[in-house]
Amino acid sequence: MRYKIKPEKGHMVEKERFIKENKELIIGILWKNGSVYTESRPTFTNNYDPKIGIQIFDIKEYVGHETIDGEVKVFFSETILFSEQDFLYAIVKESSYHEVLRGFGWENDETTDIVIWGDLTITKTDE
After folding, report:
1. CA distance 86 to 80
2. pLDDT for 85
3. Which of 11, 18, 12 is nearest to 89 (CA)?
4. Which of 64, 97, 99, 125 could link 4 by a cystine bridge, Cβ 3.0 to 4.6 Å?
5. Residue 116 to residue 114: CA distance in whole angstroms
6. Where exactly are the structural domains of the chain?
7. Are 83 and 62 spatial neighbours (Cβ–Cβ below 8 Å)?
8. Which regions of 1-127 does DSSP assign to beta strands (E)?
9. Pick from 21, 30, 28, 15: which is nearest to 81 by CA?
10. Do 85 and 76 meet the contact criterion of CB atoms below 8 Å apart?
């Protein structure tokens, strides 16, 4: 039986990190709606702190997730000049930003974090 875990107030955020020399670019997406799916009843709930949340890939029973209607937020290290920030922000708005950033020498640290927090609703599902 599969289970669906849904943050009650849509508390779900995704974060990617790119680095180049002494510069850091963090791309965050605040999802307005999303769910996590598990293959069996999730076991993390006994130690879950809604103020801290959990990285969804750390959920032992994880089998997938869906996200809906995200808002992109971009964070720049202090070592990135304002003129370069405008250029990078325009790149991030493109769907192929991973490839474009790599073409300009930015490296993705290959870590994508997706965190849920707050009160959760857990239900059995056939989805």
Report:
1. 10
2. 96
3. 18
4. 125
5. 7
6. 2-125
7. no
8. 2-7, 12-20, 23-38, 54-55, 62-76, 107-116, 120-125
9. 21
10. yes
Specify the residue for token string 């955020």.
13
Task: Note the pLDDT tens digit of each residue in 93-113.
Answer: 888 999 999 999 999 987 789
Residue 125's SS3 state is strand
Residue 119, helix vs strand vs coil? coil
Stretch (H or E) spanning 97 = helix 97-103
Alpha carbon 112 to chain centroid, angstroms: 6
* Token reading at 81: 């000049």
Residue 28's nearest CA partner among 41, 43, 13, 39 is 13
Residue 67, classed as helix, strand or coil, is strand
35/11 Cα distance (integer angstroms): 10
Distances (CA, A) of 116 to 10, 21, 52, 69, 119: 8, 31, 9, 15, 9
Per-residue confidence (pLDDT) for residue 61, from 0 to 100: 95
* Tokens linked to 107: 């490296």
